[in-house]
Structures are given as structure tokens and as C-alpha cells.
Amino acid sequence: MTREEIYKQLDEVFQDVFDDESIQVNDSTTADDIEDWDSLEHINLVVAIENKFGIKFNMNEVTSMKNVGEMVDIILERI
Amino acid sequence: MQIVNFSFLIFLFISVIVYYAFSKKNRWFVLLVSSILFFLFASSWKLLLYLIFGIITTFLGTNLMEKYSKKRKLILFLTLFSILGPLFLLKYFNIFPLTINAFSKLFSLDFKVGTLSLLAPLGISYYTLSLTGYVIDIYRKAYKPQTNILKHSLFACYYPILISGPFVRYNYMEKELFEEKKFNFDNIFLGFYRIIYGLMKKLVIADQLALVVNTIFDNYTTYTGFYIIFAVILYAIQIYTDFSGCMDIIYGASKMYDIKLIENFDSPFFSKNLTEFWRRWHISLGTWAKDYIMYPLLKSEIFQKLGKSCKNKFGKKYGKLIPTVLAILILWLLIGLWHGASFRYIFAAGVLPWIYLTLGQIFDDDIKKLNKKLHINTDCFSFRLFQSLRTFGFMCIIWLVACSPSLLGTIDVIKEMFVFFDSTLIKNLPEIPVLIIFICSILVIIVDYLNYNNINVFEKFKEQNLLFRWFILFSIIIIILIFGAYGPGYSASEFIYGDF
Predict the structure, then answer these.
(1) pLDDT of residue B488
(2) Confidence of residue B500 (pLDDT cuts 50, 70, 90)
(3) Residue B358's closest chain A neighbor by CA?
(4) φ, ψ at B185 (rounded to 5°)
């Protein structure tokens, strides 16, 4: 799967978790860019991404990912 | 040794001189010796044994985990048990006899269980949780463990944070504590400004207000009605200036060694809602609880299964909401317990925040829709003010419970709140320098407002002309010396959060 394909699927996950079909994410997207992305929604988002891609993030990654780009790097490593 | 004390300033001064007198490579060692000396001055050598035990078990545990990778889970549990055990025994064991005694009283039984009264070492709640986080991080392979036991010891007992935190993560502190630091006068000045600002908050505002707050709450059947509401509002200011003032002193002391600690407050009273308030109040506790309690809970298989079954039964919204609400209940009960082994704290600092956050989670969307329907402009100053006042009001309910003599006693205090009050009693309240407290409080509000807008007041202050800086600094020092609650007739009360 290419980075672009991952982003396509990630957009769907983000839109579903945050109930907002206008969300488009990129490497530099952070929690500050999406209104409802708080600490509680973060874990829901992580689990939704895990289910979508059939991968697991470890706890260290969950708490230290700084932007969507880092998330995609990990997804690319695992799929 | 208390940190609101002249001897602390002398201790800090000598320690900073010795620190910079040593070579850059060995400066951390001065911090270790300073920390042990500080502990011995403030506590006792017998209590130092608890700290040493915690240091040794976590040092062995983390390094064994690295060596015996297959047994890391077992080593994790043993290490956590050995470090959390003493904390539980010394600070939270009494919750059991207190529960039994409360039920015994409720059912009018003549049965009472004795409580444990063991002395806890200085900063046990703080160093234990920081070490617990470190052990879990090593288990999660977030970074490599420290192999030098002396450096490991400094992480555990770095003295400024033994007093009231903040909780620190090893991967952040490693760089701050052990990297070679150059001497820079700016750090000494910035640290000094911050200490003076903290002393002003503590001695001129918090400790003076405490005199009035304590008088009213100790005699709430006399000072009824408006006095109680007044005391809760003053307590809100007191607890904030006390805790954040303490953090200013800790932050300032650290800055003098060129060690930058993570901020524990970020203008909490400007928060729009309670979720934001807790993101800005005691930040390091919130981050710790999120990383080591809430996320592991929500990511656990049990919570995942619960979420799926709730989603199938009640739909998407509740599939997300129910596990979240359950996880934040566990989280807040533990935070409540951390504040003190009493029902009062568990309710005030645990159950009430949970109720607020749960209601927020349930009704957030509906409130947004209602605002839209009623054409309320939510993007203007008046609405922002309303939101901040609403948040403050909710927090005052929590602090009302925290100030009451007991959880059941809160009901009596609330009843007295609705009793007619005698305005002449105001003369009997302790005399405090109202105008000075007011001016200092305005200064705190301005500093917080600028900080809220990402302006670092201390950095800006450093850029001003020397004459202006010294004029302001000396004015504040004189205000502290004349109007601070210290010296004969006063005793600088211990920091509220130092007890937790």
C-alpha cells in the first residue's frame, strides 16, 4: 500500500470518528487542527485505525505520536 | 526544610554556586548531593530508607527487564508492587478502616477500627508516580533504562520536584539533568524572578486569604450565608496561588540550574469548559493519568469488547461513550484517592469531576445545537466570560466539598449557606491587607492572561531596562516583606499540594 492509499483510508477513519466528512489529513495534521480531537477521542481514533489496517500500535506510540505523518510511518512499517 | 523559608533560599544559593563551580560533566552530582541533603533537612534519615528502597528496586527492575526480556512482565509486576506498596501502606491504607468506621457510624454500631498513623517520607506521592511511569516506559520499550545507579537516584529524588511535583518523565529529564550546561546569568535572573513571583503568590495572597477562609470554615455555623460563598471564592484563589506559587518557586529554583521543568499550570481560570480546565490545571498529573491509566484501560481487550457490544446494542454514540465514561470513572476515583484517603477527597476530586465530564460528554452536542437554535453568539467576549465564570462556578462546588469538615459535613455547610447572615460579623474576621491582595491578584490575572495568549511574561520582563526591572522586583520584595503572612504571629503554612 502506498502512502497516498493509506491517506485515502485514513481520511475515511477520521471522518467517521469525528463525524465530519470534510476532514482531509496530511503529514502535518495534529490534534490542534481538528476541533474534537482531544485525549479521549485520540484513543478512539487509534483503535479505529488499528481495526481498519489490522495492525496494533504499542502504548509508547499511542502517547508519543506527534502528527499524522508519524502515524502513517508506523502503519507503513506494520502492514 | 520548607521552601517558603529563608534557609531554603540560602540552601539554593549555596547549591547553585557549588553546581557551577564543578566541571560541566559532573554538575549533576552536585544536584544529587543537594537532593539528599535537602531530603535529610526536610525529613529524616529513617524516612530516607523508603526512598533508597524505591530507587534500588526500580533500578534493578528496569535493568533486569532489559536483560531478561522474556520475564519482563513478571519483573514489571514485582517492581510495581515493591514501589506502589509502601505508598499504598503509608498514604492510602486508612481508606479501609475509615470505610468500616463510616458504615459503623451510619448504622449506629458500637464498632470502630483503628487507623494506621505512619510517617510518610517527603514527596512519596511524587517520586513514586514518576518512578512508576519510568518502570512502565521501560516495560513498553519507550527508551533504554539508566544503568548508572547514581544518575537513576538523581532522577528519583531531584529535590525541587520532591516538594509538590511536577510528575516527570525520564526521557525528558535525562536531557535536562545530565546534559552539560553552560553558566548563563539569564538563567539565574529568570529563576530569581520566578521565585519572587511565587513567594508573592504564596505569602501575600494564599497565606493571607487562608486566615479568612479557615476562620469561616472552622466556624461555619457562625459565619453563615454569604460568608460561606465568599470563603469558597477566596479558597479558589487561595488554592490556585498556593499551588501555582509553589510551582513558580520550584520552576525558578530549577531554572537557576538551567533545568527546565514542564509547566504544571497554564492559566486554568481562562478555560472555556471543565475539560479544558483540567488540561490546564495540574497538567503533569493529568498527563501521567492519561498515559498510564486511561489509555491502557481504553485500549485493553475488555474495554474494546465492551465498546463493540455497546455499539451493537445502543448505536455508535453510546458505543464510544459507555467505555469512555467507565474509564474516566476509574481514572478520577484514583485521582481522588491520590488527593487523600478520605471520602471527602474521593468525592470532591474524583466523583464530582467524573459527573461533570460525563454530563459534558452526553450533552455537548445538544448544547451546541441549542446555542445555534437560540442564535447565541458563542464567538464573542461576553460568551467567553460566561464560559470562564461557569467553569469557575463548577470548580467552586468541588472546592466547597474539599473545604468541608467531612463528606457528610458538606451537607451541613450547604444548609448553613442558606441561613441569614449577620453583616456585622465581618469585623470579627482576621484583618488582612485587602488592597495589596487585590493588586497582587490583578497582577496574577494579567500574567495569566498574557500566558493564555502565549506571551511569556518572564522573558518579556527580562528584556526591559535594568532600572524598571529592579524597581518592580524591589517593590514586590518589599510588599512580600511587609504584607506577607510570615514571621511572628504567622507560620508560613505548608503548601496544600505538598500533603497529597
Answers:
(1) 57
(2) low
(3) A40
(4) -55, -35
ipTM: 0.87
A44 vs B contacts (CB less than 8 Å)? 298, 320, 324
Cβ separation A58–B296 shorter than 8 A: no
pLDDT digits (tens, 9 = 90+) for B278-295: 999 999 999 999 999 999
Between chains, do A40 and B324 touch, taking CB under 8 Å as contact?
yes
Nearest to B290 among A39, A44, A46 (CB): A39
List pLDDT tens digits, range B343-352: 888 999 999 9
To the nearest whole angstrom, how far is the Cα of B124 from the nearest Cα of chain A? 25
Residue A63 has its nearest CB partner, among B275, B291, B304, at B291
pLDDT band at B211 (very low <50, low <70, confident <90, very high): very high
User: A59 vs B290: CB contact, 8 Å cut-off?
Assistant: no
Look at chain A and report how many structural domains it folds into. 1
Tell me whether residues B295 and A38 touch, CB distance under 8 A: no
pLDDT, greater one: B101 or B331:
B331
Domain that holds residue A69: 3-78
CATH of the domain at A43: 1.10.1200.10
Q: Quote the pLDDT of residue B297.
A: 94
The pLDDT of residue B494 is above 80: no
Sorted by where each begins, the domain ranges of chain B are: 6-183, 187-499
